[in-house]
User: Fold this.
Amino acid sequence: LKWIVMLAPLAIVFYMSFGINKMSASKAQTTFWVFAALMGLSLSSILLVYTGLSVTRVFFISSATFGAMSIYGYTTKRDLTKFGSFLMMGLIGIIIASLVNIFLKSSMMYFAISIIGVLIFVGLTAYDTQKIKNMYVASDSGELVGKKAVMGALTLYLDFINLFIMLLRLFGQRR
Assistant:
């Protein structure tokens, strides 16, 4: 059951990413809410590892950072699309480094991954917000807008969760 709760959100992200064009907007919304519920279950285990106070503190730090970067991404006149490929390469890099570090168990690498991860997810928050804003401005109508909204929500949700986890790794107090 533990593995199902941990891996199901990842499976749903892949399902939504590759299957969004085949599903209706309402099915996409339902799938998103199932994903959010499973993520909540999956993340509840952090309270077993970190103190409640540090989780709360890091949540508010993450919220403020996410909000500030989202506002920046929404209001800036600067075109952030040129950072997209760099941020995606960085994301792939931290995923690979995290997988390698499962075997190496290096605390220094864990620390570096967390710092780089914070920088990447801060950048992705601004980038994704601007991308969603630009998609909305050039929006289509009806069903497609609903699907884009769900995928935008999923993207920002993942940015927030990953930013929160990276900050928790850096500043969370373990039990």
